[in-house]
Amino acid sequence: MGLGPRWSPWAALPFSPRSRKGGGGGWGLGGLKAIGWILFAGVAFRLLCSFSSSSSLSPDIKEESDVDTTCIGKCDLFNGEWLPNPSGPAYTNSSCRFIDDHQNCMMNGRPDTGYLHWRWKPYECDLPPFDEIRFLGAMRNKAWGLIGDSILRNQVQSLICLLSKADEPVEVYHDKEFKNRRWHFQSYNFTVSLVWAPFLVKSEVFENENGESTSEIQLHLDILEPTWISQYERFDYVVIAGGQWFLKTAVYWESDKVLGCHHCQDKNLTEVGFEHLYRRTLQEVLKFISSAHHKPVVLFRTWAPDHFENGEWFSGGTCNRVLPYKKGEYGGKYMEHVMRGIELEEFNKAVTAANSSRDVVKLKLLDTYSISSMRPDGHAGPYRMFHPFAQGNKDGSSVQNDCLHWCVPGPIDAWNDLIMKLVLN
Q1: pTM of the model
Q2: Is 405 a catalytic residue?
Q3: How many Å apart are CA 371 and CA 366, to the nearest integer?
């Protein structure tokens, strides 16, 4: 039935104003009972929602209700779809000068721009776009540390570009190779540190930027990487991630003895599966976070998918798609499911252990895998460098594709939208 001009929302309630017309209907006993039942139902519903939504969070973190959902337990930020976004990205490579050349797809000649016009929409709630002024205001006098590999460096570029819309950052530190860097936002006394720790545990690496190695990586499973451990107490917020580097050939050490090797062809060493080694590393990392005296808010980011087709990065693999996948269209690769499964298992164990011991652990999951797996169109691809096509050369077969890292701006901006939602709520 249509809601015409005569309809009133009060008419359906026993204590409506209409019941007060005529012979002494007033509020009456029935009306008071109805009020009591409505109040009781409302309180009970709020308690039910509060219980269901907080049961999966660490003890000291409560997530605020989303504006457009009745019960926050219904909103899974990581389950949704990519929708068209005519307004485009929050910044461009022209407005942001902090994009590294190998992620600056527009500067490197990428001709299409459709990949810039999508936004992530969770099914049961909205994900607001990054609000740089609100974020910086909340982070006044605080420090962030983003710890991991080049994919995390990729995300930091996006974050710095978003924040630079409100305040110009000053780079106050970088190492010789620009792998460890720090920016300061003077108006807010806010710092962002990028900490290079691709394995999260101590390692000696002998390869160049193109992945060419002169010797096997030496990996110490029982020693966390000193670079990030030494800075940990400086940070109020931490984003930590890893995984991809565990697929590389490496010799593994424990208690100053060689435990074995992954994928060593010419050494008489026990072959050790990287799955066990990644699990072991995460256990060490999460144990440190849980037991450390200093308790920053820690966001653990899950596996970052690649979209190489017709080969891998070293064998001519490409990523030429120009549209996102629809929900369920992309099943993912076996390796991705194995590694993400390990991450989720170890994260949940850490949260459960913290709950049972009543430890104060500010640990949140930043599960970017699903939203990223649907974006094969957003990688740098052949535009990790100034592409020969941009110069009129039609033979681009020799150009190595990057189907792991993301164009900036691009889909990786949504990772920072998620961070803002998780932290400020």
Answers
A1: 0.81
A2: yes
A3: 11
Start-to-end CA distance of the chain, whole Å, equals 39
Options 307, 405, 413, 417, the catalytic residue: 405
Measuring CA to CA, which residue among 307, 330, 306, 305 is closest to residue 320?
Answer: 307
Going by C-alpha positions, the residue among 58, 22, 420, 18 that lies closest to residue 239 is 420
- Which member of 66, 367, 377, 402 is catalytic? 402
The H or E element containing residue 309 is none
Q: Is 165 helix (H, G, I), strand (E, B) or coil?
A: coil
Residue 213 bears catalytic tag: no
Where does residue 21 rank: exposed (0-12), middle (13-18), buried (19+ CB within 10 A)? Answer: exposed
> HEC profile for 244-306?
HHHHCCEEEEECCEEEEEECCCCCCCCECCHHHHHHHHHHHHHHHHHHCCCCCEEEEECCCCC
Query: Which domains, and CATH codes, for the chain?
Result: 84-424 (3.40.50.1110)
What does the pLDDT profile of the chain (425 residues) look like in tens digits? 333 332 222 222 232 333 333 333 333 444 434 434 434 444 343 333 333 333 333 333 333 333 333 234 568 999 999 999 999 999 999 999 999 999 999 999 999 999 999 999 999 999 999 999 999 999 999 999 999 999 999 999 999 999 999 999 999 999 999 999 999 999 999 999 999 999 999 999 988 776 677 788 999 999 999 999 999 999 999 999 999 999 999 999 999 999 999 988 778 899 998 999 999 999 999 999 999 999 999 999 999 999 999 999 888 999 999 999 999 999 999 999 999 999 999 999 999 998 887 777 799 999 999 999 999 999 999 999 987 765 555 555 678 899 999 999 999 999 999 999 999 98
Looking at 53, 58, 150, 193, which residue is catalytic? 150
Tokens of 376: 């094969």
Active site residue 117: no
Q: Tokens representing 300?
A: 């653990």
The span from the CA of 293 to the CA of 7, in Å, is: 61
